[in-house]
Amino acid sequence: LPEPRPPAGQPPExxxxxxxxxxxGESGGGGQKTFRTLLAVPAAATDREERDGxxxxxxxxxxxxxxxxxxxxxxxxxxxxxxxQVPPGFAAEEAAAWLSAARAARVxxxxxxxxxxxxxxxxxxxxxxxxxxxxxxxxxxxxxEALSYHLAGVLGMQERxxxxxxxxxxxxxxxxxxVREELRGSHWAEGAVVSLTRWVDNLTAVVAPAPWxxxxxxxxxxxxxxxxxxxxxxxxxxxxxxxxxxxxxxxYLTANFDRxxxxxxxxxxxxxxxxxATSNLLxxxxxxxxxxxxxxxxxxxxxxxxxxxxxxxPLLRSVCVFREGTARRVAELHRRRSAAAELRRRxxxxxxxxxxxxxxxxxxxxLLQARVDFVHRHIAHCRAQ
Length: 385
Known about the structure:
Elements: H1 47-56, E1 72-73, E2 77-78, H2 80-83, H3 92-104, E3 107-111, E4 121-125, E5 130-134, H4 139-155, E6 164-168, H5 180-186, E7 193-198, E8 204-207, H6 214-217, H7 227-232, H8 235-254, H9 260-265, E9 277-283, E10 289-291, H10 300-303, H11 305-317, H12 324-336, H13 339-350, H14 354-357, H15 362-384
Antiparallel strand pairs: 1-2, 3-4, 4-5, 5-7, 6-7, 8-9, 9-10
Helix pairs in contact: 1-15, 4-13, 8-11, 8-15, 12-15
């Protein structure tokens, strides 16, 4: 993936993005004055605010029920009624069935186009389904794709990602034998690990909603979205915002710079980029968002934290309404300090070829836990407000 850098004399701070704790070598903690909804948070919190936020994060059923007309419950959680309207995405049973079939199927044909870079292919499988076969520029991109997919499972948001499995390129193997000639023309290395991602029809582009789209295009800091504005939004927009809150949290944890962050970076030469389609994010016909192509996550992204966290962190701070289930999982990973262990357990149990690519290094595992801890403190601070 390209690694662009800001032009000389034009630091990221020009667009309102501050340096992140990870980029400075700190574990970081964020507390800025926030409302109860999506908003920008311009200043650091005090240690006392963070401690208070930690104490108030625990969610209990003893609190009175929220107003059913409000999209937000208990200050920082999307309402249950609203969450029930979010399209289901790729159900776990459906994904498991497809993965099992794809691993057993033969590759009937390989076609160019439709799956990103020129080294990728669209595969037609013998069971009648189709899959994008991604051949990374280097193995860490395929590793990042696989680990990001399973981290989404740990976080309870895997239904937003198309089912993905690893495959071993063997021209004389059973799976690839029907396309032996096509493989010769692909310049893929024998024994390389590629990813098979389920092809999804009729996807359409997604433009970032407020406060990330129009505000950023106007050159301003991310602006608050008041509770009154949330109440007035139509259900379809609220349902999309629920999914965006998960997306931004997910991309912060994985340090994925190849989605909304890459658009924000491009503001320096294209002031209208935020009004255009968001990279690697598409919408299904039922309105569900599909988090596509996560090759930049966890491995490649962690190597470039100093470059991209000045964009990724302000995005996280712009969210102060969360899915309650997501917040619970983050709190548990923080309490047990088990982010890498949970990811490793799930990856090894569900991906037969995991050992071919290996797992995170010790340093990468530490970064993942540090980012989980940072998200937890941010959620706690939002609650404290």
